[in-house]
Amino acid sequence: MSSSLIAQEKEPSNYNYNDAFGHDFYSKNGTATRSASGKPGHAYWQNSADYTIDVNLNETTKEISGSETITYTNNSPDTLDFLWMQLDQNLFKLDSRGKAVIPVNGSRNGDKGQNFDGGYGINTIKLIYQKGRRSTEVNTTYSIVDTRMKVNLPKALEANGGTVGIKINFSFTSPDYGSDRMGVLETKNGRIFTLAQWYPRMSVYDDVSGWNTLPYLGAGEFYLEYGTFDVNITAPSTHLVVCSGALLNPSEVYTTEQQNRLKRAEASDATVMIRSEAEVTQPNSRPTNTPTLTWKFRIENSRDVAWASSAAFILDAARINLPSGKKSIAMSAYPVESVGQDAWTRSTEYTKASIEHYSKKWLEYPYPAAINVAGNEGGMEYPGIVFCSYESKTGRLWGVTDHEFGHIWFPMIVGSNERLHAWMDEGFNTFINSLSTEAFNNGEYKERKSNMHRMSSVFVNDKLEPIYTSPDNLKERNLGVLAYYKPSTGLILLREQILGSERFDEAFTAYIDRWAYKHPTPDDFFRTMENVSGEDLRWFWRSWFINSWKLDQAVTGVKYVKNDPTQGAIITIENLEKMPMPVVIEIKTKSGTVTRKTLPVEIWKRNVSWSFKVDTTEELTRVVIDPDFVLPDTNSSNNKWKATDGATSVEILTGYLGVYSSPAFPMKVTVSETNGTLVLEAEGQPALPMESEGSGEFTMEEAGLSIQFNAEKNGFKLDIGGQVFDLKKE
Ligand SMILES: [Zn+2]
To answer: 658: closest CA among 699, 707, 695?
Structure first.
């Protein structure tokens, strides 16, 4: 009876509890800039960039030209010998890296085959040094590498608060389709320009990578410094212009009637029309017939600014009520093609509801307006303004509007590095969208909860990279799952199955508060969630975010104490894949009583298989693990045990226990019971668990072993591979 004969029959498990729960999760300790608790450290610093931009729109040539003056402040402890800037429009140059990586079968990124040679024209860059009231301007040299520009500083920028002004004249022709983030849409009443990535922007210098200089290839979004933007946009006077922030000169750009309507909207929870469908084609819906008008906007605490301009715009608005009592304004700009109660006529209602929900639930909306613009993008977000498809309708329009405005919180307020960690903005946003959608208009567009067993193959399969992959480093077709749905589902699991909504919401709110208008990294998020909830979650980050591990929980056995159902049941479960999760078990007994038992994830800290007792007094008919299908269990078939799966006749073991022997057999044999299983142990040999076959017969097939008790239960026949011995109870 060698030990190899006693291996129990079961599915092999891929689970390794040391891989899941090992303590070496964080690769670095807390630092002066990033605390081990997940907070910004005591010496946290961040640079800032304030912009004044004057720009012209040429409707016919689609050219945008102008100048900007950036006041850049170096709060880092390092002197800076040069600056890096982002020239995102250079993605649309024919020889850009972003164009080079577009596959033959097309992409969401790039210019969608317009085959157009875009990019910035930049001729001089001046540095402005301020000394008291006197400012001096000097020309400087610069070099452009794809979508990056290095600006040389003749004298280094001082650490801890040194400032420099950078003045740049720039121009570009807008692509019609700008990587699904900006562009030009032709409509019946004129072109709609949705303009973003439109001015040279500062790269971020941080304590993580120094200068962040990854090129803009299309999929990876943005990483930007905060500051104040003053933007003056000169457009044809037939146009309405909307832009991030507050409009500073409404009396110059709107008719008197429109100004009055705007005032009404500022006091109205119902949508107020500012320029109606009928008025779009009426020249008197504009205040002047001079060729151009200049619109002036300002936004503070912002990492970016975007705008839209068109003669085709219908405009409506309503008041947004914020928790502090402050007000903002929801506004929609769309062409006649988008009108309809099932379409953009409800856009302002959606915008208002979305902003009010997130403000109440997480953090108050900080900007003076929230504007939804109908464009040719699927959906794209900027501070205070978003671009959504002019063709979206009903639940899809709600969904895209709510999603793009959810981005105000991630990454506009919580300013993570989108180019590296898309899941920290798209995923977190998709998660908050699920709560907002549930709440909107008594669940008008509420979605049914999906069966997570069925969804599991979407989240974990051999074709998927881990979530923790930068967007330019994963297959384009996987971005939707890895940046949006899988991380969002991870947060839902954390909230609903691991921490509970109260503890989760407290920690998630702390993350938002701690990192509002700052630059968190993944560790800052992980550490905050663990510190505030007080829970070690490294096994979860590892399974779901860092690796692409599967979950497979199984019910592998149901026994009774002493094989007597009146004394309670013993259920054995196993973790068959690499991801551990807490356990919910539903138990049904013969009389129809249904109970549930929950077990913490700690059972998997040192076990692949776990047996536990359930206090019942009758036979079980069904045992189900994860009965609500809320865990991404990749194999449902082993989640359920039914009475017919086990021994049909229940045998009470008590009568069999004792020590047996025979003059013909060299050893004494002890019959005992463990967890409802009969165990045979010959002197000096390993204990052998025996399967009950009913009517006093017990077998262990792998060992070629069977015993048959006599009716009096005072002896049994022992069959070892055909050799039979008669043993009697001592
Ligand atoms: Zn998004």
So the answer is: 707
Give me ligand 1 centre to Cα 592, in Å.
48
C-alpha span between 13 and 609 (Å, rounded): 9
Q: How many residues are listed for the chain in this entry?
A: 730
Going from the Cα of 192 to the center of ligand 1, the distance in angstroms, rounded, reads 22
CA 580 – ligand 1 centroid, Å = 30
Residue whose structure tokens are 């212009």? 241
Six-digit token pair at 288?
Answer: 């002047």
Model confidence over 346-357: pLDDT tens digits? Answer: 999 999 999 999
Ligand 1 centroid from CA 75, angstroms: 30
Residue 697 CA, ligand 1 centroid: distance in Å: 64
Of the candidates 490, 501, 453, 451, which has an alpha carbon nearest to the alpha carbon of residue 468? Answer: 490
The alpha carbon of 404 and the centre of ligand 1 are apart by a number of angstroms equal to 6
Residue 538, both tokens: 């490294």
| Location of structure tokens 């799952």 | 481
For ligand 1, the distance from its centroid to the CA atom of residue 254, given in whole angstroms, is 32
Q: Among candidates 330, 348, 315, which has minimal Cα distance to 192? A: 315
**Strand arrangement of the beta sheet that strand 148-157 belongs to:** 142-145, 148-157, 80-86, 201-202
What is the token pair recorded at 392? Answer: 């979206």
As a whole number of angstroms, the distance between CA 146 and CA 141 comes to 17
Distance 351 CA to ligand 1 centre (A): 15
Predicted confidence (pLDDT) per residue in 172-192, tens digit: 999 999 999 999 999 999 999
Tell me phi and psi for residue 476, to 5 degrees.
-55, -40
**428 CA distance to ligand 1 middle (Å):** 10
- Report how far ligand 1's centroid is from the alpha carbon of 307 (Å): 18
Q: Strand 182-187's sheet: what is its strand order?
A: 177-178, 182-187, 190-195, 307-310, 240-243
The owner of tokens 């005032």 is 263
Mean pLDDT for each consecutive 10-residue tract of the chain (730 residues)? 40 93 94 98 98 98 98 98 98 94 86 86 94 92 98 97 98 96 98 98 98 96 98 98 98 98 98 98 94 98 98 98 98 98 98 98 98 98 98 98 98 98 98 97 92 93 94 93 97 98 98 98 98 98 97 96 94 98 96 95 97 95 95 95 64 88 91 87 87 80 83 92 89
Span from the CA of 708 to the centroid of ligand 1 (angstroms): 67
